[in-house]
């Protein structure tokens, strides 16, 4: 007789090999067929809503690992919230307007871009955005992300565009929006103003120069010692091309300055920088005399002459003057710098910026008219040298702003732009107050955005491009006044809702205005329209109005915005300002941020460095599941590392979880969870212990989901699989599962526990391992009312009936003793005393208290240790002892087991052959047949 056939060996159709890359698409198709997202919504009907509002990725190019990470974190949050008892709504969105797409279309058009009508170019941009929207949608779905993919929100939809116009109109009518001349970041090659978020800092070399500005005021009135001297103030700059726009020189009122007589003339600069300046001027070693020392304050109102332009440069005081570099006398060009502009306003200086859209000097600039500013640095220096004003010159490498799109260095230039004022209606203060009504995760996000809002200049919302939502303002041809009334704006909004924003570019001003409109200022009836479009951050910043407030299932403020930490400057920021400006509150209750993907060494990813990981390739190679596991396993609040090494470890971890699940499934093949379930109170004690452990896992994992710490979810579950289950519980269980009668209470008890463990585990894992959890779920025993998908279920609750702290403590001790026995067996195995652990007979001598505990568990001891016999001995009768370091007084001996090896259960027993007709098996086995 082959006794192997009498064992209850595991069997399951759940395959050992995952084959994720190949099998995931089939699963996706199944989900598609049943419309899983709607199914989950139906199950959740009537529950409290949870709205995570999607930050729209830009519809340009394939998605990269950072975008993948973001979408997967969102999906984990949503799935976990759904399984915690919420009705989750997820509407994915896309940001479609803006420079990058227009740039691509321009490149494809070549010279045609200059002659093509704007409306036609806009259609090409729309097609381009649509193409990538479709591509990205498929890529996101491939990750197992559920949502309203068939009906996403799209910032170029007519309805969305109309809302964008409407929101702009609200701010315009409330007086938050103004038109003004102000320095803005300007890219001369893209010919547009740039938002702060569109500026990148990179190394750039410019000349660093020291320039003399001769005094024209009679300085002897404040410093008599300088009477009759030729006096100059020395300034320093790294942008020589701004010298033609110099209107002032700033001193710090509290700093000490010196008038130094050297080579027959007097130079003025900060006292603290004396040595530094003499070095920079190449005058170190030259004899000099300090003629006067004075506070900067006395210089206010005196005047210098521009070195080569017939214009005065006034001396002013400014708090931003520092002694970190330069001369302590700061060159001020109000048209080319933010601080310069602000201090210029205080002193009533002109916002002078003689540079055109192409970055060329305007015709009124002597000597340099028509020259490209970055080419003019050297020419300006030559001119300064020619007039004897250049004191020192060297190259300096520094961090300089560059255009995010074309990577060229940009300039600061004042132009006529539209702004949202931070002060006029108190937007800044209101926004700062709103920040504290929001929960920021991690908490430093609060300080970050607070600091940004506190210090930001007014929001420049105009762009000189075609692909966007127009600034819908009309100008009177007669008097130049601009028209903005509720009636006109409503009229335009209705047109845009019907025809899209294209209509602004297709029709003349007259045809965009309500019939019979006349200028309220001069009564004229002819108008032009504004040609600028809105900053694309304004587009996405109104999504709370265009999406959250417009869709039935949604609402504002929503529960969560979740993006990379750069969005404190971007989307979180623009959404906050827009919502506070129009509604007086933030559009979100919680904001969660994640870090950025870096390689295994912590370096930023880039195609040029060769450390670029493509999520599509990862999916093809490992499956989306491993990508998801990576997202969950890393602490996303920091930089998120990825490398072959990390992925290999994750694949290992995945296998452990998969194999553990497979083993349990294999032992449930004959388990009917309605008929065979053993109540916890009646379970075998070890089963009760694992049920107790399971409750701890459930509590920990649910807590980790609650606080968005998905790496803790992963580690808790992985640890449970490998430590508690694989190498302990399931290992010990084998004998009971295989050799007991199939329907025995002992086996059903084990199966009941295993079933409950897997049921809990598969649910707790499902927000992360969406595919595998579903596959396991499908292989689990059926019962009436079993949900079609694991994603339609709820997380298990901690079951107080399964908790037994006293039992937990007892078992902690037993498990520790078991560990010591394993060590002893390992030594015996090395000494060839035993082979398999079942060959062993273990003798244990323990101190009194421990001995009592072991005696209590005497009957299960051999099965628990996976040995054939355990003898508890009270005196030192053991030879060749193993003495435990963990438990004082615990001594263990290992000897060859008594009796004969049972052919069926492999245990050694003195009862083998005792039952008639079964000469090779033990009594226990014979009875179980
Ligand atoms: Zn550019
Ligand atoms: Zn008018
Ligand atoms: Zn046996």
Features:
about 950 residues, alpha/beta, 5-stranded parallel beta sheet, 28 helices, about 40% helix, about 20% strand
Topology (SSEs and partners):
Blueprint (H helix, E strand, L loop, with lengths): L19 H15 L1 H8 L5 E5 L11 H19 L3 E3 L3 E2 L4 H11 L8 H25 L10 E2 L3 H16 L3 E11 L4 E3 L4 E16 L16 E7 L10 E4 L4 E7 L2 E6 L3 H7 L7 E8 L7 E3 L6 E6 L12 E3 L5 H9 L26 H14 L3 E14 L7 E10 L6 H9 L3 E3 L2 H12 L3 E2 L1 E2 L10 E3 L5 E2 L2 H14 L2 H5 L2 H4 L14 E3 L3 E2 L1 H6 L1 H6 L9 E7 L6 H13 L4 E7 L2 E3 L15 H8 L1 H10 L6 E3 L1 H23 L18 H22 L3 H30 L5 H21 L4 H10 L25 H26 L9 E6 L2 H9 L1 H8 L3 E4 L9 E2 L7 E6 L3 E2 L6 E2 L13 H6 L1
Parallel strand pairs: 1-2, 1-25, 3-4, 8-11, 9-14, 18-26, 25-26, 27-28, 29-30
Antiparallel strand pairs: 5-6, 5-17, 7-8, 7-16, 9-15, 10-11, 10-12, 13-14, 17-19, 20-24, 21-22, 21-23, 29-32, 31-32, 33-34
Structure commentary:
The chain is an alpha/beta fold and 929 residues long. 39% of the residues lie in helices and 18% in strands. The radius of gyration is 38 Å and the shape is elongated. The protein binds zinc ion (3 copies).
Q: Sheet bearing the most strands, described?
A: 6 strands, mixed
Structural class: alpha/beta
Low-confidence stretches: none
Q: What number is the mean pLDDT?
A: 93
Beta content: 15-25%
Instruction: Report the principal-axis shape.
Output: elongated
Number of helices: 28
Distance between the termini: 12 Å
Across the major sheet, the strand order is 12-10-11-8-7-16
Associated small molecules: zinc ion
The proportion of residues forming helix, as a percent range, comes to 25-40%
The total beta strand count reads: 34
């Amino acid at each position: 007789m082959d006794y192997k056939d009498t064992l209850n060996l595991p069997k399951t159709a759940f395959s050992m090999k995952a084959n994720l890359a190949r099998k995931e698409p089939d699963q996706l198709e199944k989900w598609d067929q049943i419309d899983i997202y709607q199914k989950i919504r139906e199950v959740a009907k009537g529950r409290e809503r949870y709205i995570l509002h999607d930050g729209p990725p830009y519809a340009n190019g394939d998605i990269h690992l950072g975008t993948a990470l973001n979408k997967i974190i969102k999906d984990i949050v949503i799935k976990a919230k759904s399984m915690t008892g919420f009705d989750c709504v997820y509407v994915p969105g896309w940001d479609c307007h803006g420079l990058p797409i227009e740039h691509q279309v321009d490149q494809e058009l070549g010279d045609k871009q200059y002659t093509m009508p704007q409306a036609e170019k806009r259609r090409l941009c729309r097609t381009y955005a649509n193409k990538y929207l479709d591509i990205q949608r498929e890529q996101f779905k491939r990750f197992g992300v559920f949502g309203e993919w068939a009906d996403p929100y799209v910032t170029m939809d007519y309805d969305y565009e109309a809302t964008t116009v409407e929101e702009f109109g609200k701010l315009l009518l409330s007086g938050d929006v103004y038109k003004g001349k102000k320095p803005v970041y300007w890219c001369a090659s893209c010919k547009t103003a740039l938002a702060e978020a569109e500026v990148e800092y990179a190394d750039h070399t410019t000349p660093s120069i020291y320039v003399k500005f001769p005094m024209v005021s009679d300085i002897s009135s404040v410093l008599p010692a300088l009477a009759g001297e030729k006096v100059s103030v020395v300034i320093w700059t790294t942008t020589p091309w701004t010298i033609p726009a110099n209107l002032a020189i700033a001193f710090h009122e509290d700093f000490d300055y010196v008038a130094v007589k050297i080579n027959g003339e007097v130079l003025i600069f900060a006292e603290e920088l004396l040595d530094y300046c003499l070095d920079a001027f190449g005058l170190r070693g030259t004899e000099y005399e300090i003629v006067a020392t004075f506070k900067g304050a006395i210089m206010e109102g005196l005047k210098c002459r521009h070195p080569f332009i017939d214009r005065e440069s006034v001396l002013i005081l400014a708090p931003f003057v520092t002694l970190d570099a330069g001369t302590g006398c700061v060159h001020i060009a109000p048209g080319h710098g933010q601080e310069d502009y602000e201090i210029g306003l205080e002193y009533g200086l002109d916002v002078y910026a003689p540079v055109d859209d192409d970055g060329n000097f305007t015709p009124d600039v002597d000597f340099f008219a028509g020259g490209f500013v970055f080419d003019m640095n050297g020419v300006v220096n030559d001119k300064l040298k020619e007039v004897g004003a250049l004191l020192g010159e060297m190259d300096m490498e520094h961090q300089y702003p560059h255009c995010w799109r074309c990577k060229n260095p940009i300039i600061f230039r004042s132009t006529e732009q539209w702004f949202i004022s931070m002060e006029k209606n108190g937007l800044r203060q209101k926004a700062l107050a709103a920040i504290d009504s929001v929960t920021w995760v991690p908490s430093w996000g609060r300080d970050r955005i607070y600091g940004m809002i506190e210090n930001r200049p007014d929001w420049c919302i105009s762009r000189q491009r075609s692909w966007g939502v127009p600034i819908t303002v009309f100008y009177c041809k007669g008097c130049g006044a601009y028209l903005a009334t509720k009636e006109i704006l409503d009229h335009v909004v209705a047109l845009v809702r019907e025809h899209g924003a294209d209509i602004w570019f297709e029709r003349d001003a007259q045809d965009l205005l309500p019939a019979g409109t006349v200028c309220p200022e001069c009564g004229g009836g002819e108008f032009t329209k504004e040609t600028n479009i809105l900053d694309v951050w304004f587009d996405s910043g109104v999504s709370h109005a265009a999406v959250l407030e417009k869709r039935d299932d949604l609402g504002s403020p929503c529960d969560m915005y979740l993006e990379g930490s750069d969005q404190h400057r971007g989307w979180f920021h623009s959404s906050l300002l827009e919502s506070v400006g129009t509604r007086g509150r933030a559009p979100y209750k919680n904001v969660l941020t994640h870090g950025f993907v870096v390689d295994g060494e912590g370096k930023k990813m880039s195609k040029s460095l060769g450390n670029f990981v493509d999520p599509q390739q990862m999916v093809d190679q490992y499956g989306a599941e491993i990508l998801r596991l990576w997202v969950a396993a890393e602490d996303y609040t920091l930089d998120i590392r990825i490398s072959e090494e990390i992925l290999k470890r994750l694949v290992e971890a995945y296998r452990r979880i998969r194999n553990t699940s497979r083993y349990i499934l294999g032992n449930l093949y004959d388990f009917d969870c309605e008929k065979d379930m053993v109540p916890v109170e009646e379970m075998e004690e070890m089963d009760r212990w694992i049920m107790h452990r399971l409750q701890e896992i459930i509590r920990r994992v649910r807590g980790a989901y609650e606080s968005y710490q998905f790496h803790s979810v992963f580690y808790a579950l992985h640890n449970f699989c490998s430590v508690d289950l694989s190498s302990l519980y399931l290992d010990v269980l084998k004998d009971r599962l295989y050799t007991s009668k199939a329907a025995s209470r002992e086996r059903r008890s084990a199966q009941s526990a295993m079933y409950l463990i897997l049921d809990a585990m598969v649910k707790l894992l499902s927000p992360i391992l969406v595919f595998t959890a579903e596959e396991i779920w499908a292989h689990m025993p059926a019962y009436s009312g079993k949900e079609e998908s694991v994603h339609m279920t709820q997380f298990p609750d901690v079951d107080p009936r399964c908790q037994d702290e006293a039992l937990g403590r007892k078992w902690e001790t037993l498990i520790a003793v078991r560990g010591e026995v394993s060590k002893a067996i390992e030594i015996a195995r090395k000494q060839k005393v035993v082979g398999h652990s079942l060959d062993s007979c273990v003798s244990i001598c323990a101190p009194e208290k421990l001995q009592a505990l072991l005696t209590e568990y005497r009957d299960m001891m051999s099965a628990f240790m996976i040995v054939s016999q355990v003898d508890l001995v009270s005196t030192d009768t053991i030879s060749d002892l193993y003495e435990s370091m963990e438990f004082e007084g615990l001594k263990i001996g290992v000897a060859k087991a008594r009796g004969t090896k049972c052919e069926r259960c492999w245990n050694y027993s003195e009862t083998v052959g005792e039952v008639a007709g079964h000469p090779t098996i033990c009594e226990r086995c014979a009875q179980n047949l």
